[in-house]
Fold this protein.
Amino acid sequence: MDYFLHLVVLGTIYSILAVSLNISVGYTGLLTLAHAAFYGVGAYAVGILTVEYNVNFFFALLLAMPAAGVVAAMVSPILRLKGHFFILGTVAVQLMLTQVLFNWISLTKGPFGIPGVPSPVIFGLKLNTPPTFLLLSVPVMIIVVLLAARLVNSPFGRVLKTIRANPSVAESIGINVDLYRLRVFVITAMMAGVAGGLYASYTRYVHPSAFDVVFSTFILIMVILGGTGRWMGSVLGVVGLITIQESVRFIPALPANMVGPVQIMAYSGVLFAVMMLRPQGLIGAYKLE
Amino acid sequence: MATLEVQGVGKSFGGYTALEDIGLSLDAGSIMGVIGPNGAGKSTLINIISGFLKPDTGTVKINGKDITGKAPYRVFKSGIARTFQDSQVFGYMTGLENVMVSAPWGIGVQEYNVLARPFAVAREEKQKREEAMAHLAQVNITDKARSMAQALSYGQQKLLEFARMLNSRANVFLLDEPMAGIHPDLVDGLKALIVAMAKEHNKAVILVEHNLKVVMEMSDYVTVIRNSVLLSGTPDAVSKDERLAGAFLGVTDATA
Ligand SMILES: Nc1ncnc2c1ncn2[C@@H]1O[C@H](COP(=O)(O)OP(=O)(O)O)[C@@H](O)[C@H]1O
Ligand SMILES: [Mg+2]
């Protein structure tokens, strides 16, 4: 039961990641493979602030947002790249930020990671088990997902959809495409930062390998599986991918050390199959082209 | 002061001079027909005025304000809206949304207002929706308000694009072959609408068309270009000018 609830906790964190990434990829057409990097910035912000500076968790979680947003703004010159070049630019950002986490030892402790991140405490209750942590992660997820849904189903979201559909025609009707791209890039990084803060306090340990390009790909697959351009799709994508991952454990006679590799192969296979057979994902608004 | 003034505009692509020393000026409430054979540079001129291309030489002014080389969204904000020769709609958005997006002002397009002032945004949306429906009605496609634009026929997409332009509150319209591909039954209505925009709503209209007869009927002034301005004047004067035939000489598709 606890293991199931552990998956639910991960699901709430992943939902924040996938729904925010969908705003970039699905609504604005910014296909980015750097989302895990901003997730990592949020996790490290909470890890460092709570462990090194004894900052209250909730305050640290609030600060995780601007931390991720500032880093996104710092790398935002990659937004000048268009199309495939932008995707490559995000890969570069992701790889660089991973190296920063590994090598800026004085700040991040590098490959040792930061252990001992305190569990959040609400009204004297320590949220250090999956069922108790859900008391925090479910409301946070609901808030973030509702905000995201509100954003995309608004006049603001309509502007984003025109940019995905055709940036130069969007310009022709008065939309400052570069400015909107920047805003989306920063806002969605901030949302990823929140997810990172939750993750740090849930696992009580942050390590650079949790925020690498493989994980960025994993988030993107959840978005694509669920369907781009529909926020609900991303929540479905999370459920779908966790289900697929966990099913791997039930493969008879699979040695324990093969579970991880087979999981990666399974979700890579899912990506391939979705692109070939159903490019709009489970409930997407349009076919990825 | 003319509403729109183009002076000495030139543009080369590689070694090919597409436009040379183009000048024209246009007042509110009038229609300027721009004709010329295929490849004459008509669309290039529209692209330069709307900011999609930067001219090598020359200036574009609106109400005396220089907008040469400004980004398209800035040109739009100075009051110039355009349509594209090959219709450009947002495929996976509804007809209504396609029209509403050409009003990218107000509070709802800012994410902080969307989150902080939902009721004010909702009121604004209601008004924008009504305006957009009225513009869909002007081109007789209110029944497409809920359809995805990509499901519409080519002609319907052109009408949708036209409605989007009407919705923009611009006072200069740049129309790049608006009638091409429109069902013949609808052409007369569209022509009347364009004329009404100029005469009743005081818009300044540049009408690029390949059909000479249509241009002569609708325009107050006509400019014939073939890389440079060959002649210009009232439709009467231009149609009587023997140089008009010369403009299309050596071009296989004589009405293009
Ligand atoms: N972006 C571009 N790059 C290179 N050549 C172009 C470009 N745009 C237009 N041209 C060339 O300029 C000439 C004028 O084209 P265009 O303005 O589309 O003519 P028209 O609209 O009058 O038919 C054509 O020879 C075309 O091939
Ligand atoms: Mg043309």
